């Protein structure tokens, strides 16, 4: 055979600390058919700055679907199937780069996924620009070695083959047809070139991670050696590897034979299928249904169908796949949501999940037993959900497994009439739901009993839409889409159902009240601004107080939420008001001429609005206007000091009782905002930020002009005299 190497690569991704599935970086590869060796080249690196420390990277592998991981140790939702992923760790210590190889022999063809992430996130809220995070990069490359001319083993035909040496195993493949109930593989007529006893190892199937169900047998002697498989995967190539265990370099000649046991499905008339499909779309037509509302058949065809059902090994129910949206599918039974279940043969439903874009969601199968339909009181309906092939024998000893897949069992009885199964990230394949009625020993005639089971099956991006304390996010890696839940208010878990660290409703209400009512501390600043005739500044503070209050009322993670408009609009207005408030306050302190001050007000606001649109969370959106305004203020104060030939402001009381307290409050507020906020303490540290900033504004606003008096309505309403002001000479004239 000719071995052909192939190489696949994807661009490197920057890793993140883990808090939800969106932090894991996903790599999607497709392994071609007839691959005998798969080698992953994993490369991890980190930056060289002082902020970079030793780190451990966790890498998960899975065949058919993205890995189901749980680095935080949280609880999964009820009825969910959890099979831990296969993972390795890569350490980044003194060396800034780590290269690791992972080999997989005889891998399964199809989709393979790799997910990589850093340890759990610390929860600290970092302001963009204040600190430089260390970059941790990860890249995965795939090398494959595949055969170009694998011999095909035809069913029922013995094929002679020769193993040249123990270092060169023999690879063959056989195609498994649909409705194959079993397969038998046999080796016979084994002869060695040195006339010694044969010793061979036979491996059936391919490796899949995290679980592999390869079947291995060891054959010794010259007699026949065989292996039987129940429920092999339908309509797939089965890889078979035979290698010699002999230490001597001798040729081994052997004959291979594969035979199948075919399961004859019960015939469901095409007339029923097309008639049901037509009725579901256009409604029933007069004269097309019987008294019970089901399509009527000729008596001969109905009797023939009944005879086929008694002699068949399974009863297949027609199912229509209805695509609703991205990673959203509903399965509709043409003969109604209820299906009959018997004891003689299982009832089978096909759930098609082989489009390649269905593995990024969650498969939900819900069963409901109609208690009035079961004539035997102690009977049990046993169900099994499996991939690639169905389980065709559901008795008391069956463990819901096929030849190469461990299925998910369900059970219904009179005491427990409901059952639900949740499969997280189901692998790309044809899925089957098998149901059969099981009766206790010595309990009447079980063959005549029938149970009615209502089935609801669908594929959803996020189970239960992540609940009230989560947000379902659609994630993308190149052209592949998958979904994940981002939890809030202390909730965790795959579907945000783990309430171990959840905030109580009282704590959520307290957080909302603190973050919203703390903005009322702008009222003293507004009052001081109005009292000192700074009406433009007072308008800006009012705008900031209003939008900050309602932004934080909308930004809450729990149930105490109120949004008066779109969230993004509220956030933008809050950020804009905060930066503009700092801008106008510092310019007001500079005491420049009014015309220049208002021009700077307007021009600065326009530039701030533009910068926030470019990068809303950048630190320079706040620091840039602050520093520029401080330069203007210092220049103006120096100008006033030189002109008056003494320090400006000249009053020591102004420095001691207003400027120094205001500057101290502002520095404390910046320290809290930049270095102390975390996800856990956000609601009170950010409230402290509101209080400190608003209080500092009230202290920092300069006094009003000396020739202006406070608001006095008695002077405004006088009829005898009119006070005229001359700004230029600062004199008063009475007329």
From TrEMBL:
Keywords: Cell membrane, Disulfide bond, EGF-like domain, Membrane, Transmembrane, Transmembrane helix
InterPro entries reported for this sequence: EGF (IPR000742), NGX6/PGAP6/MYMK (IPR021910)
Family: Belongs to the TMEM8 family.
Full protein name: TMM8A factor
Cysteines engaged in disulfide bonds, as pairs: 462-472, 487-496
Region annotated Disordered, chain positions: 274-316
Subcellular localization(s) per the UniProt record: Cell membrane
Biased composition (Polar residues): 274-283, 302-316
UniProt domain EGF-like: residue ranges: 458-497
A Pfam family: DUF3522
Topology in the lipid bilayer: Multi-pass membrane protein
Native species: Hemiprocne comata
Stretches that traverse the bilayer: 510-534, 595-614, 620-639, 655-676, 682-701
Broad class of where this protein is predominantly found: membrane
GO annotations of cellular component type: plasma membrane
């Amino acid at each position: 055979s000719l071995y052909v190497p192939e190489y696949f690569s994807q661009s490197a991704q920057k890793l993140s600390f883990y808090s939800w599935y969106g932090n894991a970086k996903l790599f999607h590869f497709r392994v071609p058919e007839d691959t005998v060796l798969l080698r992953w080249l994993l490369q991890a690196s980190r930056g060289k700055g002082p902020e970079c420390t030793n780190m451990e990277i966790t890498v998960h592998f899975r065949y058919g679907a993205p890995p189901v991981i749980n680095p935080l140790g949280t609880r999964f939702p009820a009825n969910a199937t959890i099979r831990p992923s296969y993972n390795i760790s890569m350490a980044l210590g003194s060396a800034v780069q780590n290269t690791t190889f992972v080999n997989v022999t005889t891998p399964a063809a199809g989709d393979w996924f790799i997910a990589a992430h850093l340890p759990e996130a610390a929860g600290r809220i970092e302001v963009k620009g204040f600190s430089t995070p260390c970059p941790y990069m990860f890249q995965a490359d795939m090398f494959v070695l595949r055969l170009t001319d694998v011999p095909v083993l035809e069913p029922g035909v013995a094929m002679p083959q020769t193993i040249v040496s123990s270092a060169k195993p023999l690879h063959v493949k056989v195609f498994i047809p649909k409705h194959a109930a079993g397969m038998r593989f046999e080796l016979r007529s084994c002869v060695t070139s040195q006339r010694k006893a044969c010793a061979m190892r036979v491996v059936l199937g391919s490796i899949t991670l995290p679980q592999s169900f390869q079947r291995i047998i060891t054959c010794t002697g010259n007699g026949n050696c065989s292996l039987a498989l129940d429920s092999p995967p339908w309509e797939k190539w089965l890889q078979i590897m035979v290698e010699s265990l002999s230490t001597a370099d001798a040729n081994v000649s052997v004959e291979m034979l594969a035979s199948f046991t075919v399961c004859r499905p019960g015939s469901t008339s095409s007339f029923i299928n097309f008639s049901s499909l037509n009725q579901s779309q256009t409604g029933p037509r007069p004269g097309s249904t019987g008294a019970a509302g089901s399509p009527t058949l000729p008596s001969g065809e109905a009797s023939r169908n009944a005879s086929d059902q008694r002699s068949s090994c399974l009863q297949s129910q027609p199912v229509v796949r209805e695509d609703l949206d991205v990673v959203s599918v509903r399965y509709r039974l043409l003969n109604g949501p209820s299906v009959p279940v018997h004891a003689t043969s299982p009832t089978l439903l096909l759930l098609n999940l082989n489009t390649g874009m269905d593995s990024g969601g969650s498969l939900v199968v819900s069963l409901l037993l109609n208690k009035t339909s079961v004539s035997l009181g102690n009977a049990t309906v046993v169900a099994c959900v499996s991939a690639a092939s169905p389980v065709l024998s559901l008795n008391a000893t069956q463990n819901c497994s096929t030849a190469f897949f461990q299925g998910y069992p369900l059970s219904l009885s009179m005491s427990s009439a409901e059952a639900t199964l949740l499969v997280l990230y189901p692998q790309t394949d044809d899925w089957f739901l098998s149901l059969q009625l099981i009766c206790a020993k010595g309990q009447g005639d079980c063959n005549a009993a029938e149970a009615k089971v209502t089935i609801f099956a669908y594929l959803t991006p996020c189970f239960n839409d992540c609940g009230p304390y989560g947000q379902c996010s659609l994630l993308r890696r190149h052209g592949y889409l998958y979904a994940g839940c981002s939890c809030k208010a202390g909730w965790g878990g795959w579907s945000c159902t783990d309430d171990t660290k959840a905030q109580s409703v009282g704590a959520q209400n307290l957080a909302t009240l603190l973050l919203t009512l703390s903005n009322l501390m702008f009222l003293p600043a507004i009052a001081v601004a109005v009292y000192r005739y700074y009406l433009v500044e007072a308008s800006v503070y009012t705008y900031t107080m209003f939008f900050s209050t309602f932004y934080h009322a909308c930004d809450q993670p729990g149930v105490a939420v109120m949004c008066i408009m779109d969230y993004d609009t509220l956030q933008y207005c809050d950020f804009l008001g905060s930066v503009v408030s700092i801008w106008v306050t510092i310019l007001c302190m500079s005491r420049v001429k009014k015309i220049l001050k208002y021009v700077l007000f307007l021009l600065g606001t326009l530039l701030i609005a533009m910068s926030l649109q470019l990068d809303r969370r950048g630190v320079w959106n706040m620091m840039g206007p602050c520093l520029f305004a401080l330069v203007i203020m210092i220049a103006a104060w120096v100008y006033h000091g030189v002109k008056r030939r003494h320090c400006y402001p000249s009053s020591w009381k102004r420095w001691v009782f207003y400027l120094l307290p205001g500057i101290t409050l502002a520095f404390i507020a910046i320290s809290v905002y930049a270095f102390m906020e975390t996800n856990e303490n956000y609601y009170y540290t950010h409230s402290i930020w509101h209080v400190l900033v608003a209080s500092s504004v009230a202290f920092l606003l300069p006094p009003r002009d000396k020739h202006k008096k406070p608001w006095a309505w008695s002077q405004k309403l006088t009829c005898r005299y009119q006070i005229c002001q001359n700004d230029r000479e600062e004199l008063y004239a009475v007329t």
